[in-house]
Every structure is written in C-alpha cells, then in structure tokens.
C-alpha cells in the first residue's frame, strides 16, 4: 500500500510510512488538541511533495490558516499563489448567508457531497476542517449514509483525504463517523496518571491495512507544530 | 450439532468445533476490532470447504474486501470467479441512490428481508457486514420484529449466517440484536489491567447448544489475520 | 402455600419448595443467561407431575425448544404428543405477518391478554418466553396496566405462570414488571470478585409468602441444565 | 404532636412515638422491600386502636392482602367484617375496565382526588398502595399539583394517611412526591459494606415536627413482619 | 453593603453579617434539609427587626407554618396579628382550583411576576417557599427570562428576598436559578467521610459582594432550629 | 501577535502577555466563580489603556456592575462619563418586555448579531456577559452557525472580545462554543485533592497562537479581585 506522509515523522513511523494513499482518514479532538495544526502539517508536506491540494475550512478564514501555519514554520502561501493549494472560503459563505438574513441557509452535508463532485479532477489531497459543522441538525441515518457515500466517492476518485471533526459533534453522532473512514485518530486531553498533570494524547483505534499499536501516545503542541513523545515516555 | 469452522482454529476450539450450522451468529465491535477480518476468515474457510457463499457488504466495495483478504493471505478472488462466492454491491447501491438525488432512498431492513427471500436456494453461508446500516432510524420494535423474522427465515432455510454489527448501532438499539440470534460474539478494545495497555478482547456471552466459557479472550490482529492468545495469557 | 417445583432441586430449597402455586413469577436475564433453559426445566417437571401446560414462545419455534430440551435431557416431545403440553407458534405468526407485507402486524400485549382468556380451562401452567416482545413500543402506563391485569387474571384462574423477560426490555420498561408479579428472579453475568472471572449469578429480590435469602447465587449452565453452586461457594 | 403507632415498636421509637396524626407519610421501595407489609402492620395496629380505616389497593386484591396479613400474624378479617376496615377493589376495577375493551380506562390521579372527597367522614386512617399506578403517563407538573392537593385535602380532614409508592415510579417522577408529604421513608436493598451481603435498609430523610436520626437502619422481613435490627448492628 | 440577619448567628458570621439587603438569595435543598425552617428563622428575625414581611407559601398552609415556627420557638403569630407579616394562601388557591375541576389552573411563574408588582410598597422582605412549583412544565428559556426579571424587579424595589427551591426542581432546571440571584445556598444530606454517617451540610457557592468560604458546613436541625457546627468539626 | 492585558498580571504571564488582540475569547464558569469579575478587571484595564469599550450585560444592570467594580477597586464610572465605556442595558430591555406582557419577546442570538453590526466603528473591546441568555431555546446548529458568524464578524472588525458564558448554558450546548472562539478559559469550583477543601480553579484548554500550559490553576476571589496562586501551590 502506498503511503502519504502525515507531515510528522514520528506519526509516520507508527503508520508504516504515513496515511494510506487514496483513502480517507478521520481525526477528532476537543478544543485545543491541535486538530487544525495536524491538518496544516499534512497539507504543507503534501504540497511539498507536489500533490495538488484543497482545503475546505468551515471555521476559519484562509488568511488565518496561513498565518497559523507561518507561525509554526509551515508557509502555505507560495502553494496558494501557484494554485497548487486551493482554499475554499466556507466560513465566509456561512457568515454572509446569515448576514443577509437567510437564517436557514446553513451549509448541509449535501453541499459537501456536491463539493466532492465538483473538485477538479487533478486534486490529490483534500482536507476538510471540520465535518462537525455538517453533522449537527440532521438525523443520524442521513449523516451515516452521506458520510459513507462521501468516503466512497473520494476513495473511488483515489483522493487522499483528511477529515477533521470536533469531539462534540463526534460524540453527538455517537462516534459513528469512525465506521465510514479507512482510519481514525483521536486527540484528547487527559490527566497523565504518572505525572498527575493534564497532557495531550493521541489514540489510533483503526487504520486499515496498517499494523498499528493501540498504545496511547503522548504529544505536545510546540512552536514547530505537533511533536510526539518517544514511546518510553508513553504508557 | 454440526459445526462450521469459524476459519480460526483457536476460536473453533472454544466453540466445540465452530459456529452451529444452519444458525445465525452476531458479531459486534467498535472501529478497528477486526469485524470485517472475522468475516473474511469465515468466508474464506467456508469457500474452501465447498460451501456456496454470499456476502452483503454495506460499507465497503467488493474490490476492497478482496484486497483486504489477499493482504492477510485469504484470497477470495478464485471463489468469486467460479461463482462459489457472490458479492452483493450494497455500498454502491447506497451511494448511487444518493448521488442521483434520491435523498431518502437509504436501504431499509425490509430490503434485507427481501434479500433473504431472493438469495438462491443453494446458498449455504451468508455474511452481512454490517447490520448497523439497517438499524438506525427505525423504531426499536420494528427492528426487533424484523431481525427476529430474518433470523427465523435464515435458520428455517438452514443457512449459516454471520451478521456483523458495529458497536454504535448495537448500543443505540440497546443490544437487542443479541436476543434474536443463536449466538453472539463481542469484540472490544480495553485496557488490560495486568499490562496497563490497550488491547483487543473477545467475549462470547451466548452460543446456544454449545458449552462456552465466559472468559474474556485476548486476541490480536496480525498480518495473517485474527490470532487468539492462549488461555494462560488471558485473565 | 402450595408449591410447584421449579424443576431445579437447589432452587426449590431456596424457595421453600418451589414457585408459589397459582401465582405469577418473572424471570429476567441478559443473552446467554439460560432464561429459556429455566423455562424448559420448569415445564418438563410440571409435565412430569401431570400438570397441563402451555408454552407461548415468541422468539423460537417449538421444534427448536424441543431439540434444546432433549440435548439437556428434558424430553418434552411425549407430552406434546399426548396434548399435555401445548406449544403456541408465536414466532411463526410474527414472521408470517411480516412476510406477507403486513409491516405493522406485530403482536401486542393485548393479544397476550386475549390469550389469557382463550387458554383452555384445564391448563395449570403457562410459560411465556418472552414478555419483552410485548413491551417495546407501547407506553409505560399501558404496559403496567396490562401486565397488572394479566397477572391478576392468571392468578384469579389459579394458573401458575412463569414469565420470561429479556433484560433489555426489562431495563427499557424501568424494571416495572417486577411490581406486577408475585415473585421475580434476576439472572445476570458479572465478574466474580473472588475469582476475577465472568460468572453467572441469580438474584431473587422478591417472592411473596416465601422466606428468601438476598444472597446472590452462583450458577452454571451444564449439559444437564442449570446447576446452582452450593452456598459456601457463593458470597 | 399526637402520634399514631406505625405498628412497629422499633420504628415508633425512632419516630418519637409513631406517625404524626392527621398527616400524610410516604413510603417508597423497590420490589421485595416489604412496602405492603409495612402497610398491613400499620393498618392492623390502627384497627386495633379503634381507628376507622380504608385501604385502596391498586395491585392486589383484598383477599390476597388479608391472606398476606394472616400469614404474618396480622388478621385483618375481623375488622373487615365489622366494617371498621374498608377495602377498595381498585385492581379489579382496572382489570375489568381493560377486559371489557376500554383500553384507555386506566385510573387517573383525578380519581384519587375524587376518592379523597367521597371517603366517609369518620374515616381516620387511609392507606394507598400504591401511588405509582397514578403517576405514570401524566406530566410532572400535574402530578405535583394533584399530589400537593391530595395531601392538603387529607391533612385538612385530619386523616392520617400512608402512601406507598414503588421506587420505579418514584424515580420516574424525580422523587418529587417527597416534597408533598409530611414525612417520607425509603426502603432499599443494598450491599452491607461490613458483611458484603445484600441486606434491607430503611432511611428516613424527612419527618416534620419529629427529631429523626439520619442513620440508615438495617431491617429484615421475618415471619412476624418487619423487624428493625438494634442500632449497634447498624452503621 | 447593608446586611439583614439570616436569623442564624453562625450563618451571619459566614456572610459578613447576613444576607445583602435589597437583594435576592436562593436556598435549595432536598426533602428534610430544613429549607422551610431556614425561611421561618429569617422571617422571625426580620419581623423582630421591624421589617414589613410577606411569605408566599405554595406547599403549606399558613397555620402549619405558624405551628412549625412555634414548635421551634419562633412565634410568628403576633406579627400576623399586627399585619407586620402577611401570609399569602397559595396552597389553598392551588387546591381550590383543582377541587373545582379547573384541572389546568395551576399557578404559573407569570402569577409570581404579577405578585411582585402588587405587593404593597412598604414591604421590605419577601419569602417565597417554593419556587419549584413555578418551574416545572415551562421551558427553560422562559423560566430563566422570568426569574431574571423577578430578581431584577425585586432588587429594583429594594426588597430583600429569600427564594426557597426544592432540589428536584432545581436539578430539572439545570441549576439555572443560581445565575439569576445575588447569592445561593445549597442544603444537602450526604455521608460524612469521617463519621461514615449521613449528615446535613450547607454549601454557599455564591454571595456577591461578600467574602465567602467555600467550605462545606455541617449543620443540624435541632429543637431550636438550624444549628451550624463550629468550623473545626467541619472538613 | 499583539496582546491586550487581561487585567490580571499573573494570567497575562500564562498567556504570553494577555488576550490575543482582535480575537474572541470565551470564559465559562459556574455560579460564584467570578466570571463577571474577570470581565470587570479586563474592562477596567482596557479603559485605562485607552481602548474604546462596550459591555453588554444581560443579567445585571450597569449600576450594579459599577458598584461591583468599585468595591474591588476598579472604578469604571469615569470611563462611562467620558463615553469611553458604553454600557448596554440589556437586562432592563428583557425585563421591560416581559413587564409589558410581551411574554415571548426574549432576546435572541440574532439580536446579538445585529448588535455586532451596529456597534460604533471605533470600539476596540467588547464584553458580553453572558452568552448563555442567547443559547437556550434555539437549536444547536443555529447556535453554532450564529456564534461562528459572530466570532467571524468581530474578528474581521479587529475587535477584541471577551464572551462570558454560564456553565449551565455551556453544558446544555455541549461545550460547542469553545470551537467557535480563538481561546477559552474554564472556571470551576472543585475539591482540591491535597487540601480536601473546595477551591476555585482555572483551566485554559485552548488559546490559539499562544504556548499555554494545561496545568489547572488555583485562584481566589479576593477583595482586590481575582488572584492566581503561584504555580508551586498548584498541582
């Protein structure tokens, strides 16, 4: 199986080289667990490897994401300028709709499926940050059917995709998204029983075609992005 | 009682030879517990024993299941070519329906009952992966009535069936599916109290006509499929 | 108070001789706790004592119950042949209704009350396996009113009845059925704190007119049916 | 404050002589905690003291209550014969209504309020067993308003009343009934932390105008009715 | 900030002199925690200090409150006779409405707001026992808007008010009432970890403009009313 | 990144200088955790630094907030007089609407979005106390869409905003507000495991562009406002 680097060497080692190419991986986490940074690192690396990329950002404007990346040493701007990276202005769409008084013109997961169909044929990598926006307010059966379909279409088109989902929406949908994707990574903040302090942990319950460890991995958000602690420091 | 091997020698030993022939067994689990691999091993073995088999895959395309099997050393392709194994393209049906704009053409459990009736008379073994798709969005009474009926029809037709169900759907239906089937196997990931690490466990609460142990069995997903750890290593 | 043996000597000792004659006892349990076996043992014994019996089986066909009994050494077939034991084909009724497309022709608890009225006058013992089928999808007040009525009618007619109910339905109805019956037995699987292993336990919270112990009783499902462990082995 | 013996000397000691006369006391408990026996003992004692009594039994027929009492040494029959004790056939009313096909003719709490008004003026003591029947299926506000009213009316008429309520209905109504009554006694079965065994306990969170201990009191159901264990044996 | 004694010297010490004058304090508790006694003590003291007072009692008739107070040594009767204390017969209003067949004429929180407006201008102190009656059966947003308004109006009119609320209604409204009031006192019964016995505790999470301790305070209901245990005896 | 002091030196040190300028920070807490005091301190400091400020107070009248601040040594009055600080009378609007009988004229989150648009262009700092008022009674999807939009508009206009939200509303909306804001601070009261006493703690799960510690910080509400305990005293 071909792999695409996650943009994080330590994580790649735990994934037999990176994310499975042409498949869909879900990453979930609470506020402050660095979900967006994971996305930026993956995106930056994919751009560097010459992949054509798209990011659909539902909670942040592209300018902020670029600033966020620059501060961590991942400058996405050159890729945007050469059109290797396309940023879809989803938050602005949502805000403008509301501002104009269309109180019910919230984006639906259908829009997401449509997006999957209109994305240019040569796009290799898709980042969606965050799926949670699409999951609230529709019934669970619809959400599952549509997410299964989205994952099916994307995988069929051989796009490697990283779907970010906030933990609240993930819990409200009973963690059902994890069944639709090829792999899933959970980010969490919890007390380290050895140090008695709150720390960040990553857990990978599922990555098809990949020999994964079920160990809970301690990580930190540093000024150069996500850093995994070596295995010994982990439980 | 005649037995049909589960495709896993160690599990067979714990089931007095395998799954009860002509009966319906439920297997449930969270993402990454290897539910589909259990299905592939059982299917591969049944094909090898000359049984006529059908797999209804609601979350994966047949090609992926075949790839998945090959990677683990269970090549299903020859059986497909000789029509000994039929793969029903359920995921594609679901996706196409949605793509064409039929937003409510999700598959219902009724379709499943119909399937049970149209499957060819000479089919011995049926794998359904996964029942969860059919259980969300209908009321509990209907789900139970229809699953009881499905299990009754399949058993009446002397088909040995393995029904895979994701843990989320299983919990949402209050684990009620376990009353409808002849036996049930639960797969789970939890902390091993002796090692302090996350590990995979299997628990068999029910297998009619079979002397089973209630011990929780430690297992792993290896490159040759599911391996049960010997009893001593278990609690 | 006259007693009717439960078909299990050890249980009888704990019930001052057996179930109170002419009264209604509830038995609840999760999948694999042997609820149906309890019913078969009681039924077999009642038939042997010359009682006229009826079993209403909602989840299994009569043939399977007979096979199940034979495997454990309780052959019900001769009693069926002499009409001492009547088996009501409830599962088939449910399945046929569904198969013919009557999607809403599920059995209701009203049917149960009607049954109570049409059962032949000379029937002494009634087994219902399982009440859960009747409790889902109706509101709690109705369920309680109708179960109170059923228990009242059966007790009025001096029938000894054993009502089996699955734990899921029992929990969903907030264990309310226990107030309507004369006695109640709960079967469960849980970790034995002394052995650290999953084991089966029986708990009798209520048996009117009977001096009962509140001890939790360890039992096993053996090849000769249910066996209670002696009191010392219990906590 | 005048007291009316609870029919149990040990309990009376803990209540400064018994239940407050002319007031309403609630007693709640799970199946098998002896709620009805508490009622019988209180009733028997009140009859002996020459009080005119009424019992409204919603789950048992009067004959059974009399049998139940006799077995414990509290023979209510003579009081019934002299009309000192009136037994209202509520269960039969409920059952007959259902049997005649009036599927919605369940008793409502309104009927209870009407009862309070039509009970003969010279009745001193009222036992209602059990209030749970009236609380399910109406909204919480109505239940509270009506129970407040019932308690108000009964107290206004200087009747001493004991209201039995099953724990399920009590929990489903969020224990709200405890605010409407003058006092409340909770019966429960739980593990005794010292013996490791399931035992019965009584807890009195509230008894207005009475200096009560908040100690949890161990009791047993013996062949002579409820017996409280001496304080030392309690925690 | 001017203070008005709570009627309990020990509590006053913990509140820098008493309740903040002209503000609204909430007191919540389970059955038997002495909520009404707290109200009586506060009322008695306020009357003694010459304040003009009103009590709105929704669960008890004024006569009972007076008896209750007398038994504890707080005789409110003289103040009623001189019209310094007005008792509003709310329970009787509720009961009469129901008795006359107006099944839906329950009091609403709107009535409460109206009351706030019609109370005589010279009233200094208002006790409402209990707010719970007004909170069930309306939606949370309404409850919050109206309680905010009530607290605003009362504070605007410089009335010192004590609002009693039962713990059940408080939990059902998600403890939201605590945000609307100036201060809040929670009464509870729980196991004292040092003595292993059930005891009564008071906790003051909030009292604006007051330096409060977050210590949980042990108290008892004695024959002279509420007594706080000295700080050392507390945890 | 430019920082704006939180008005608390110790907190500023933990935030690399203060709140990120031009961004939106959420602060949540239970009653009595000092949410409003946090707001007052921040507001007072921003006024001192010459920022033009607006406070939207939904639960308290401006006069009380000024009194509250004065008592703690943060006199906001001079800034109000010079129009550097504008106080929007939201509570009075709510109360008047209700008083006039417009029972459904509660403020909606739409009003909040409108406010964002009509606030004068030269306003630098906005405090909203509290968002909870706007979150109850609308569905979760709407709340999220509108809060995302509000945060987007405010950030777009380069306003630094502090949004106070009560813990009850925060929990009822599944903590979803934390995903919409740039940073979030949680205030809580809990038992300190080392002292066994209830104490106040602050936790900062998220502050974009800021290296934060996940340590739980012990703090107190003193007569000079919020004081953080030095790190050693913290766990």
UniProtKB/TrEMBL annotation, chains A, B, C, D, E, F:
Pfam family, one: ATPase
InterPro entries xrefs: AAA+_ATPase (IPR003593), KaiC-like_dom (IPR014774), KaiC_dom (IPR010624), P-loop_NTPase (IPR027417)
GO molecular function, one term: ATP binding
SUPFAM superfamilies: P-loop containing nucleoside triphosphate hydrolases
Domain KaiC span(s) in chain numbering: 2-235
Record key words, sorted: ATP-binding, Nucleotide-binding
PANTHER family for the chain: PROTEIN GVPD 1 (PTHR43637:SF2), UPF0273 PROTEIN TM_0370 (PTHR43637)
Protein name: ATPase domain-containing protein
Phylogenetic placement of the source organism: Archaea, Methanobacteriati, Methanobacteriota, Stenosarchaea group, Methanomicrobia
């Amino acid at each position: 199986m071909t792999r695409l680097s996650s943009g994080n060497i330590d994580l790649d080692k735990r994934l037999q080289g990176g994310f499975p190419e042409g498949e869909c991986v879900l990453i979930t986490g609470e506020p402050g667990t660095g979900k967006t940074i994971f996305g930026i690192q993956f995106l930056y690396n994919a751009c560097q490897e010459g992949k054509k990329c798209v990011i659909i950002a539902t909670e942040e404007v592209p300018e902020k994401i670029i600033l966020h990346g620059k501060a961590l040493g991942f400058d996405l701007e050159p890729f945007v300028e050469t059109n290797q990276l396309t940023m879809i202005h989803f938050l602005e769409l949502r805000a403008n709709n509301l501002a104009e008084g269309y109180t019910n013109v919230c984006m639906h997961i259908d829009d997401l499926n449509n997006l999957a169909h209109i994305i240019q044929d040569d796009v290799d990598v898709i980042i969606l940050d965050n799926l949670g926006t699409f999951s609230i307010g529709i019934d669970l059966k619809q959400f599952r059917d549509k997410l299964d379909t989205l994952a099916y279409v994307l995988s069929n088109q051989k796009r490697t995709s990283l779907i970010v989902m906030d933990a609240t929406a993930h819990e409200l949908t009973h963690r059902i998204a994890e069944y639709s994707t090829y792999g899933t990574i959970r980010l969490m903040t919890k007390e380290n029983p050895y140090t008695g302090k709150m720390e960040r942990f990553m857990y990978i319950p599922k990555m098809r075609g990949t020999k994964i460890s079920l160990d809970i991995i301690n990580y930190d958000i540093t000024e150069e992005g996500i850093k995994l602690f070596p295995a010994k420091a982990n439980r």
